[in-house]
Amino acid sequence: MELQPNVFDVWVFRRTPSRGVEYLLLYTSQEKADRWFNGGRFWQVPSQMTEPSERIVPAIARRLREFGLEPKTVWAAEHVYTIYNRRFDCMQIISVYAAEVSAEGIELNPVEHAEYRWCPYDETYDLVTYRGLKDGLRSTKEYVTGRVDPPRELQLL
What's the predicted TM-score (pTM) here? Predict the structure, then answer.
């Protein structure tokens, strides 16, 4: 079985005056769910693979541009997890990052995602199903979004 160590999740967040920190969640389209997940739909975050010899910050920026987003800052979220990805029929090692943006709207590819939401931490935590996402969100809050002064050594952009 193939092992892909070049996969990453990005916890995209924004800071708002009225609601504080909000995280971006994407809801899988029915087409994607039917094709890859036995019809199961779920909330997820932007995820992608780095290209050979591509560095992580340009890879994150590339992925976020697909949603019409530009990262203001990128952080290492100090979390990594493994999954079996049935879509690619392989084991993946997924590194978790956080990216701050200032956007309101998101551009969705309807084949991949049917809707999006900006949610505060508690709602985000309740909406995501999988342990890797929950653990990545907790780590993002602990090291980046829940701190007044996140460790500078974790800031990549």
Answer: 0.95
Query: What is the residue-averaged pLDDT of the chain?
Result: 96
Domain of 12 in residue numbering reads as 3-154
Asked if the model's pLDDT at residue 104 lies above 80, the reply is no
CA distance 153 to 156: 8
* Average pLDDT of the segment spanning 89-106: 94
DSSP symbols for 34-96:
HHHSTT---EE--EEEPPTT--HHHHHHHHHHTTT---SEEEEEEEEEEEEETTTTEEEEEEE
User: Residue 107 is part of a domain; what is its CATH number?
Assistant: 3.90.79.10
Structural domain tally of the chain?
1
